[in-house]
Design brief:
Structural class: alpha+beta
Radius of gyration: 22 Å
Shape: globular
Order of helices and strands: HHEEEEEEEEHEEHHEHHEEEEEEHHH
CATH architecture of the largest domain: Alpha-Beta Complex
Number of domains: 2
Distance between the termini: 18 Å
Largest sheet: 7 strands, antiparallel
Number of strands: 17
Bound molecules: FE2/S2 (inorganic) cluster, fe (ii) ion
Length: 382
């Protein structure tokens, strides 16, 4: 790495048109200073996906999550409003909740200060008199949370436009999937020993499919020569569309177990899969009968928590055969994700070099190129 790893001069070749361009240099995937700058310049300045409202059906339901290194509590209030609070006690900073669950009060495990679901301080046992004068100022600190078509997003930057504005036409594009009516039926986590950007790129790289998924994804017939056509976007996402037969939520051998299709799809969405990949780190797959989301949580330059969520419509979930059919969809996820994880982990190992060797993009990696250039737009100045 050179003295200043963020100097624009290092990246001139990434800026070239896709077929002439090089990928990001290796230190963008390995260096601690690059990783920390991503937190400040990317995650702290973006709308970060948090999940779907169906994950919090009742007042008092909560989960905890860490975004950009900031621990958060996401909780549904008595008024049915969903809020995101810093997961830190206003007394002396203890982490309040872990995991997920259901509660009436958020009680600190250290000195038992208790907050209601709107974040207001309700009790400070043995020291009520000391805090009485300032009680209203000592509520939990909330950060921005907005909901777009059933999906929750959090932001730490007061100046960001609303999530709806930030995502441009996305709402219109995915309208046929009726996302507010979806139910999250399963979440599964993987610890991936690779940089989060490698997973994002891999998801947008159709070139690897026959080589990394020969016995699974590649068995499904993709219609037409182009495996993935880039979709123009006007919001904080890149997108592609793949034409194929059947459901992309099932591997070929399991197509006979398909659930009924979403009834409101029209146009190209009737036969194929739409892949909006939100910036910075949320990858959607929307096919004819289900939706999945891969959430990428960077932990370290070479470590990412991957969460895969499966979604079906309320009508599908209410069917008597849902419990029998859903596992075939989960099997697809559980087959393909380890194949992709192995590919990016091996890539990470190969990127740990003391010197930079320049790479090469091809015409099948235009979306990876678009992503790498977006990353540079955030990270590099001058
Ligand atoms: S740190 Fe939470 S009650 Fe003391
Ligand atoms: Fe893959």
């Amino acid at each position: 790495m050179q003295n200043d790893p963020f100097a624009a001069s290092h990246f001139a070749k990434v800026r070239l048109p896709p077929q002439d361009a090089e990928p990001l240099p290796h230190w963008a995937y390995t260096s601690q200073s690059w990783f920390e700058r991503e937190r400040e310049r990317i995650f702290a300045r973006s709308w970060n996906y948090l999940g779907h409202v169906s994950q919090l059906p009742k007042a008092g339901d909560y989960f905890t999550v860490e975004v950009a290194g900031i621990p958060l509590i996401v909780v549904k209030g008595q008024d049915d409003g969903i809020r995101a609070f810093f997961n830190s006690c206003r007394h002396r900073g203890t982490k309040l909740l872990s995991g997920e669950g259901q509660t009436r009060l958020i009680r600190c495990p250290y000195h038992a200060w208790a907050y209601d679901l709107s974040g207001a301080l309700q009790a400070a046992p043995l020291v009520e008199e000391d805090v009485a004068a300032r009680k209203s100022e000592l509520g939990l600190h909330a950060t921005r949370l907005e909901i777009l078509d059933g999906f929750m997003f959090v932001a730490f930057d007061a100046a960001l436009p609303s999530v709806a504005e930030t995502m441009g036409s996305l709402s219109e594009e995915w309208r046929g999937y009726d996302t507010a009516n979806l139910v999250c039926t399963r979440r599964r986590k993987w610890d991936v020993k690779a940089n989060w950007k490698l997973w994002y790129e891999n998801y947008n790289d159709s070139l690897h499919v026959p080589f990394v998924h020969p016995g699974s994804l590649a068995k499904q017939k993709v219609t037409g020569r182009q495996r993935a056509s880039q979709v123009e976007t006007d919001g904080a996402y890149i997108a592609h569309f793949t034409m194929h037969n059947g459901s992309r939520g099932l591997i070929e051998d399991d197509q006979k177990h398909a659930l009924p299709r979403f009834p409101d799809l029209s146009g190209r969405y009737v036969e194929g899969t739409y892949y909006p990949c939100l910036l910075p780190a949320t990858l959607f797959g929307m096919t004819i009968d289900c939706v999945w989301v891969f959430e990428l949580y960077p932990v370290a330059p070479d470590r990412t928590t991957l969460v895969a969520s499966s979604f079906f419509s309320r009508e599908q979930v209410a069917r008597s055969d849902f419990a029998q059919k859903a596992p075939y969809y989960y099997r697809r996820t559980d087959t393909i994700v380890p194949e992709d994880n192995a590919a990016v982990e091996r890539q990470q190992e190969g990127l740990c070099l003391p010197v930079g060797l320049s790479g090469k993009f091809t015409h099948m990696e235009t979306l990876c190129h678009a992503f790498d250039n977006w990353v540079l737009d955030q990270m590099v100045t001058g």
